[in-house]
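Pilot study result, target chain (184 residues):
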Amino acid sequence: MARKPVLEGGKKDEIIAAATQLFFTEGFEGTSVRKILGMVNGEIGMFYHYFSSKEELFDVVVDRFFRQYALDFEAMTDTVHSPEELVDAFLPSFTKAMDQFRLVEGSMHWTIRSALHERTLLSLVPVTEKLLKQFGYQGSYPLDIAAARTIASVSAAIHSESFQNMKKTEQKKLLLQLLNDCMS
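Predicted structure:
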């Protein structure tokens, strides 16, 4: 008789918690399944009962890390009707997210920072497509490319030192210009 998979709780959550700690501090390559299991006093068979591979577990860890951020961004975009309203809602949200990220960033392995950044940007493409359409996108690029271009432009700006040193009014002006550039 086949065992029913355990979807949440128990050892599975312990494995995810241990993996999160190890992936964040030692990176993907520096974390082995055996190290993870050593932290939870588990056997190798138990790991494969829950996950098919270390890569699958890594995806779960990354998804859990930024799930709330993506949900908050999507909820925020549901309430805006113009690029100005988007920027006004985005700036405080971005500041809060960066403050939270800085709490864990210092001990985070560079491979994890990179994976989180990439996954976050990719997850924002559908929401950005919706926003561009809502704001009357008339550009020549296909919508998915325009959305990715918009995200890349905004990401490059908000992660730059010069953006961090700007006054809020300058940040808003810059983001609005980037959005306008991407709309055409």
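One observation from the pilot: Residues 1-7 have pLDDT under 50 and may be disordered. A full batch analysis is planned for the follow-on phase.
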